[in-house]
Amino acid sequence: MVLNYIWIALVVLAIVAAFIQFCINGDASILNNLVNSTFSSAKNGFEISLYLTGVLSLWLGIMRIGEKSGMIGALSRIVSPFFVKIFPGIPRGHKAFGSIVMNLSANMLGLDNAATPMGLRAMKEMQELNDNKETATNAQIMFLVLNTSGLTIIPISIIAYRTQCGAANPTDVFLPILITTFFSTMAGLIATSMVQHINLLNKTVLAYLGGLSVVVASLLYFISSMDPSQVEFLSNVSSSLILLSIILGFILLGLFSKINVYEAFIDGAKEGFSTAIQIIPFLIAILVAVGLFRASGALDLLIDAIRYIIGFFSSDTRFVDALPTAFMKPLSGSGARGFMIECMNTYGADSFVGRLSCLFQGAADTTFYILAVYFGSVGIKNTRHAVGCGLFADLVGIVVAIIICNLFFS
User: How much is the pLDDT for 234?
Assistant: First the structure.
């Protein structure tokens, strides 16, 4: 229901903003751009769905090998003590835990291509436990919020774009992004837990979260002792090695378990194809709304209003120039990426605005895109508090990004 109102608001605001600008300036191009954006966004949505068809078929095929070989079950048992506390609606040892941990791990390592199929698989497995098929369960909402909060350990793509834009040290945003995403993820976890009355002060939960914090702190200490060139090499190589290791490990374990690896892969790939077809309408709907909002100039009007208000209270309005990236990220990953690159090209990759836009890009994930695709894949219409908790995590990420950027690069 909430997603319905937000979709309507984006479309209506976009059209109204375009009409206002047309009446003021008398420029018909704004109306033409708005109409053209509907066709280009629909085309983009279909092209993305075609791409997802191949990716989903590949990774759900790999996941089926892991499932039949016993690897997914082993992962499920490892994280089960923690997950049964924050996902109380999922029975201990359920197969969904394995898919959830694979998805969250892929997200943390920046493996977007692998994360989405694993996330869709997890959502489908949780849907099997859902008595009301059109309403999201607490477990599904918690999973979505953890996804949208975007915890990232290795921001590979952002480092690559900073290199292309001529940054003197492309990896200097590594630590700030990690800190920012850690806070946004914790905010999403805490907010969702409060709504769902989950006790995070449980010894098991504290032990796992404490262990994760130690791992992150250790990684930061290790990276801080490396040269920038070494950090960049590690970021570029590690994720690829991990990705290939997962594929090789699943296949070898499948051979060891004496299963028909090829048939298992084909079985999972068929599931990926049908899932990709199902999400096409939801994907096109959200991308058309975002395209209209962006093409109408409504986002620019919002940024100008914020700049005007901030100017009354502070002389430092530098962060406002990077806000388009922050506002676009929950709506469109490619749109936010475009604003990030534009900020670095306009103000400089090593400028405050350029770096802050990178932090905004890494602070969260595409909230509405994920909700549309993940919930759409299983036919959920009532998202309950998923949007509110997800946007709260995004807001915390934006605020923390501004603070951290001032601490590191002011």
Answer: 64
Whether 353 and 321 have beta carbons less than 8 Å apart is answered as yes
What's the pLDDT tens digit per position in 292-317? 877 887 777 888 888 888 877 776 77
Tokens of 341: 């690159």
Taking the C-alpha atoms of residue 408 and residue 410, their distance in angstroms, rounded to an integer, is 6
Query: Mean pLDDT, to the nearest integer, of 209-235?
Result: 71
User: Are 11 and 292 a contacting pair, CB within 8 Å?
Assistant: yes
The answer to whether 196 touches 156, Cβ cutoff 8 Å, is no
Phi-psi region of 166 (alpha: psi -120 to 50; beta: other; left: phi over 0): left
If one compares 383 and 224, the residue with the highest pLDDT of the two is: 383
Q: Which residue has the tokens 């690069």?
A: 409
The angle that helices 2-25 and 367-377 make with each other, rounded to 10 degrees, is 130
Residue 91: name the closest of 132, 141, 128 by CA.
128
Q: What percentage of the chain has pLDDT greater than the value 90?
A: 12
> How much is the pLDDT for 137?
94
SS (H, E, C) the chain: CHHHHHHHHHHHHHHHHHHHHHHHHCCCHHHHHHHHHHHHHHHHHHHHHHHHHHHHHHHHHHHHHHHHHCHHHHHHHHHHHHHHHHCCCCCCCCCHHHHHHHHHHHHHCCCHHHHHHHHHHHHHHHHCCCCCCCECCHHHHHHHHHHHCCCCCCCHHHHHHHHHCCCCCHHHHHHHHHHHHHHHHHHHHHHHHHHHCCCCCCHHHHHHHHHHHHHHHHHHHHHHCCCHHHHHHHHHHHHHHHHHHHHHHHHHHHHHCCCCHHHHHHHHHHHHHHHHHHHHHHHHHHHHHHHHHHHCCHHHHHHHHHHHHHHHHCCCCHHHHHHHHHHHCCCCHHHHHHHHHHHHHHHCCCCHHHHHHHHHHHHCCCHHHHHHHHHHHCCCCECCCHHHHHHHHHHHHHHHHHHHHHHHHC
Report the distance separating Cα 263 and Cα 258, nearest Å: 12
